[in-house]
Amino acid sequence: MLNALNLYRITIAKGIQQFATYRANIFAGIMSALFTLGARYALWLALFATGNATDTTLVETMTYFVIMDIIMVWTTSSFGNRIGSDIQSGNISMALTRPRTYHFQLFAGLHTGAVASTITYSLPIFIAAAIFIGVSPPVSILAFGIFILTAVLGGAIYILVDLIISYSAFWLTDYWYISWYKQALFALFGGTALPLWFYPGWLLAITRVLPFRFALFAPIEVYLGRIQGMDVLQTLGMQAAWIIALFAVERLVWCRVQYKIVVQGG
Hints:
The chain is mainly alpha-helical. Helix content is 76%, strand content 0%. It has 11 helices and no strands.
């Protein structure tokens, strides 16, 4: 176990070192973060100026997106591109026979990118937003602790959904649109593009029976104090239930993937 953790740490450290070699990556990431924050603030400032947004405030909405950006760099993955690229290039055969499991390689790449993105993207957004716009603090220390827990569980949901969708690359001839479908599902039903409290009732009802809202939207609602009391326990229960169900599906599909690889002989 310790050897695996040490290997994981070394793998991530080497990836970060490689990223930091190109200073332009850091500069471009920071500029992209600041531009994104400025554009988003201007958009929502114009919307709130119309007086139509009555269920929230500008600061709360901007806090929502700032926290979203922080969570997303650690939970959102692009396994479809990695898996599809490995299949198309033929590297999948070598990747599956390495001492490190294929999932180990996927997660190491995810967290390498997360550390780099935190430094160059989410951290600049948080600092700039805190100084120039204002970021709401968590409603309490307890709420912040529960937020961390729900964010971890939400990250597991996001990754499991991504893995299940990404495995389709083993059956498809192309893979570029896999990430697009995943992002569209989370944008529409998970609140990554628009907070779900702006949704009409019928669409909000649909999101409540799907796993996507529990990945990112629900943890931020806990942070903002929109979910409290018994609703917190219900949210944690729903997250746990979705993790169990999605994990079962992911294992089933992965078993079919391995059979598919054996049949194709590579």
